[in-house]
Amino acid sequence: MTIQISPSILNADFAHLADEAAAVSPSADWLHVDVMDNHFVPNLTLGLPVVESLLKATDTPLDCHLMIEEPDRWAPAYAEAGAGSVTIHAKAAGAPVRTLREIRRLGARAGLALNPGEAVEPYADLIGEMDMLLLMTVEPGFGGQKFLDMVLPKIRRARELLDSRDASVWLQVDGGVSAETIERAAEAGADVFVAGSAVYGAQDPAGAVESLRSLAAEASGRK
Ligand SMILES: O=C(CO)[C@@H](O)[C@H](O)COP(=O)(O)O
């Protein structure tokens, strides 16, 4: 599995999203879009109209992370609009299997997300329904939080579980990922890294993406 970096635009300048996308586009594998509804998480960000505009403004595929209630109702529209990946939260979904299948049917990669305190084992039977498992390494809602080391054992368990069922499923981590923490997450088995402040807080966002990629590749022994 190759190392992939997905800069989070939560930490970008929302008044200049097209420019912010362009600032990482030579290096980033994805652009991570945090959709928050102020119900599932205590923050409100953006929704489908902004995603539709962003899709026209960049060639970098969008990795839409839905931190919303009723993802079963809303997720298909993001896939239909052209997002490359759509991730729903397991505990918010009433019918996760149906929704993951619908996301795939509409041509996007389907992701399932777990908060730091949620175990991975109850979702083992859903592995065949997903293209990516997202393990939050902070409580969802805000950028700039501290990486939670307590999630590392879960990353290791998830990696083993995924490899034993379907090694093609990506393992994403999101929250507090930086030059100081990415090696620990990569060693534990993550292969897709969301980074907000570590990229958009840097003088050279594209350079920061490349530095993170090198650190993760070195730590994991993968390219
Ligand atoms: O989903 C979230 C926060 O809920 C993340 O995507 C953050 O936007 C990541 O920001 P940093 O922790 O990297 O600053």
TrEMBL record:
One of its GO terms (biological process) is pentose-phosphate shunt. CDD domains: RPE (cd00429). GO terms for molecular function: D-ribulose-phosphate 3-epimerase activity; metal ion binding. The active site is at residues 34, 174. It is an enzyme of class 5 (isomerase). Gene3D superfamilies: Aldolase class I. A divalent metal cation binds at residues 32, 34, 65, 174. Binds 1 divalent metal cation per subunit. Its EC number is 5.1.3.1. The keyword Glycoprotein does not apply. GO terms for cellular component: cytoplasm. It catalyses: D-ribulose 5-phosphate = D-xylulose 5-phosphate. Catalyzes the reversible epimerization of D-ribulose 5-phosphate to D-xylulose 5-phosphate. This is Ribulose-phosphate 3-epimerase.
